[in-house]
Design brief:
Pfam families: SNF. Belongs to the sodium:neurotransmitter symporter (SNF) (TC 2.A.22) family. This is Transporter. It is found in: Membrane. This protein is mainly α and about 450 residues long. It is built from 18 helices and no strands. It has helices spanning about 10-25, 25-40, 40-70, 75-85, 90-125, 135-145, 145-165, 170-195, 200-210, 220-230, 240-245, 250-280, 290-300, 305-340, 345-365, 380-405, 410-415, 420-445.
């Protein structure tokens, strides 16, 4: 049966929402605030913003450009572009690595998405009310030690993701982000509004935007660099897949700036929603990953209106997880759909069930399979380490190097609509600055 013509986004705005939805995820709502807390506040924020501009933007543009030129899944795109540019076929590994990376990340990302669903339900039931630190800690540890509960959350979350992606680009991806992104933004605004009433909003502003440069260390810089890279969904085949649905009329640089601004505003907004609550309740800003799943429920359970605020916050977290998860499944589905006779629906089911099965191994590593399986790591941590420290940096590096060094320079400059000055800036950043930054993240991650 003949395949349909390659899908296209219906408008620039829906593409922006989809790309921003991919970028906006647990990294913004869960990881960014605790990294700010662990890394000394505003100094980390400013370095992060600089890294987004110098490394995130050029790699994002490169992945879109490659996807738009190839008009296929990431593996086929890189293979075709390498052939056209008379470069080795081995460049196809960049696309393959992105697809595999997205699949692996989705498998354990769905587990965390299940956590957010569990906490949303607990918010409604009032499970946080009146709890002390030991009670909230017991709730979190009880969840992790219960394989049946983790499996239920993981399964429901993955079913939602499969249902959205199976509907296709226009009905599925676009339809979801048109609903989820505005609701996510609204929830965030309401939570920031609440933060303004705590009497500690000014303290949060100072913490996030008045840097103490003495707290800036080499470790802080590298942490900011790594987070800037990963928050934009780079190196996962996602943006290349999304770029393949993009028309020639879209200004890539302008659109990238819009997506990065949206992603950054939501990350900063998450900090402004969370830190006033943390300060108002004399909680530890440097409590790490537990800031969301242990520290904040403690605050919600002991404040007026905490049930409603807790529900809104964990809905926000769930929506953010969904927008990223559907983008993680997309490059895998696109690859299967183009390389096999399977329909869009069946390709989605196959890819989704595969990720779900691997996710079961990941969730069991918190309980019955807690013993290390490789390099002293359980399945969950192994998948996280393999993707975030090895596959994603190398895939992103491959994309920027291919764009900057293998494609005809003048055609890239023309496609990006660069001025004379813009051409010089682009070539310096794309050829040297961004690759050096990615290599720094990669090498440091292995140490």
């Amino acid at each position: 049966m003949a395949k349909l013509a390659h899908a296209q986004w219906s408008s620039r705005m829906t593409f922006v929402l989809a790309a921003a939805g991919s970028a906006v995820g647990l990294g913004n709502i869960w990881k960014f605030p605790y990294m700010v807390g662990e890394s000394g506040g505003a100094a980390f924020v400013f370095v992060y913003l600089l890294c987004i501009a110098l490394i995130g933007l050029p790699i994002l543009v490169s992945e879109w450009l490659l996807g738009r030129r190839g008009q296929k899944n990431p593996a086929s795109t890189m293979s075709e572009l390498a052939r056209t540019a008379k470069k080795p076929k081995a460049w196809a590994i960049v696309g393959i690595s992105g697809i595999v990376g997205a699949f692996l990340i989705l498998s354990f990302y769905s587990v965390i998405g299940g956590w957010s669903l569990y906490y949303t339900v607990n918010s409604v039931s009032g499970a946080f009310s009146g709890q002390d630190a030991d009670g909230i800690g017991a709730l979190f540890n009880g969840m992790l030690s219960n394989p049946g509960l983790l499996l239920l959350g993981h399964s429901v979350f993955m079913l939602l993701v499969i249902g959205i992606v199976a509907r296709g680009v226009t009905k599925g991806l676009e339809g979801a982000v048109r609903i989820l992104m505005p609701v996510l933004a609204l929830l965030l605004v309401v939570l920031i509004g609440y933060g303004m009433t705590t009497g500690h909003f000014g303290e949060a502003l100072t913490y996030m935007f008045n840097p103490e440069w003495s707290k800036l260390t080499a470790e802080t810089v590298l942490a900011a660099l790594g987070h800037a890279f990963f928050t934009l969904s780079l190196g996962m085949g996602i943006m290349m897949a999304y770029g393949s649905y993009l028309g020639k009329e879209i200004d890539l640089l302008q659109t990238a700036r819009t997506v990065i601004i949206m992603d950054t505003v939501i990350a900063l907004g998450a900090g402004l929603a969370i830190f006033p609550i943390v300060f108002a309740n004399s909680l530890d800003v440097a409590s790490g990953p537990g800031l969301i799943f242990v520290t904040l429920p403690l605050a919600f359970g002991n404040m007026g209106g905490g049930t409603i605020l807790g529900l809104m916050f964990f809905l926000l977290l769930t929506f953010a997880a969904l927008t990223s998860a559907i983008s993680l499944l997309e490059p895998v589905v696109e690859f299967i759909e183009e390389r096999t006779p399977l329909s869009r629906v069946m390709a989605t089911v196959v890819a989704g069930v595969g990720a779900w099965l691997l996710g079961i191994a990941a969730l069991l590593s918190f309980n019955v399979w807690s013993e290390p399986v490789l390099f002293g790591l359980g399945v969950f941590d192994l998948l996280d380490t393999l993707t975030s420290k090895i596959m994603l940096p190398l895939t992103g590096l491959g994309a920027i190097l291919f764009t900057a060094w293998c494609l005809e320079r003048s055609s890239v400059e023309d496609e990006l609509g660069l001025s004379a000055t813009g051409k010089s800036v682009w070539n310096v950043i794309a050829r040297y600055v961004a690759p050096a930054g990615v290599i720094a993240v990669f090498v440091t991650g292995l140490i």
